[in-house]
Write a structure and sequence with these properties.
183 residues, alpha+beta, Jelly Rolls, 2 helices, 13 strands, globular
Length: 183
């Protein structure tokens, strides 16, 4: 079973800048973990939920299209809905932004139905140092592309992390597709 796949140019550079502007047009919140707890040794980032930002419907529409096409061609997961809003995260060097190894399937009623995770690289790769999205689907670590506008899709049970940002800031967009539990 293939556990990850990259879609280059899921968004243009101008669209990525527009998404960042939408997210930063209001206050960003301290990022938590599933269940709302914060644990800064595990995750240090600022986030915005796009459903709380006016004019963001086009982002969700694009993600739905990317997921539909990629799931049909690559994963063939039983996906039923998008039960959570898209999230934009800012990992800044000012806070040594990072997210340690984790999977996206959690204990909450919605998080336990996550099947496919989508992470879109919003920042230009020259805008930050560190901050690599790394996946560990097996004994080997794979680094996701840093090209702006690339969507990396992976099974939500795959371990992944964002390494500490050492300079500048990295912005990413995350969305989850949901369905019945894996069997």
């Amino acid at each position: 079973m293939q556990t990850s796949f990259d879609v280059s140019d899921a968004f243009t550079g101008a669209e990525c800048a527009r998404i960042i502007a939408l997210a930063t047009g209001g206050a960003l919140a301290d990022a938590g973990l599933v269940g709302g707890t914060t644990h800064h040794n595990m995750r240090r980032a600022d986030i915005a939920w796009l459903d709380e930002r006016a004019g963001s419907d086009w982002v969700t529409d694009r993600i739905v299209d990317v997921v539909r096409e990629t799931n049909r061609k690559v994963f063939d997961f039983d996906l039923r809905d998008f039960a959570e809003s898209a999230q934009v995260a800012r990992y800044g060097a000012d806070r040594a932004g990072h997210f340690d190894w984790h999977s996206d399937i959690g204990d909450g009623p919605v998080a336990r139905r996550r099947k496919l995770t989508v992470v879109v690289q919003l920042s230009d790769p020259d805008a930050y140092e560190g901050g690599a999205l790394e996946l560990m689907p097996d004994a080997h670590i794979r680094q996701a592309p840093r090209r702006r506008g690339t969507a990396t899709l992976f099974a939500s049970f795959v371990l992944h992390r964002v390494t500490p940002v050492e300079g500048g800031a990295r912005y990413s967009l995350t969305q989850w597709a949901h369905g019945p539990a894996f069997r």
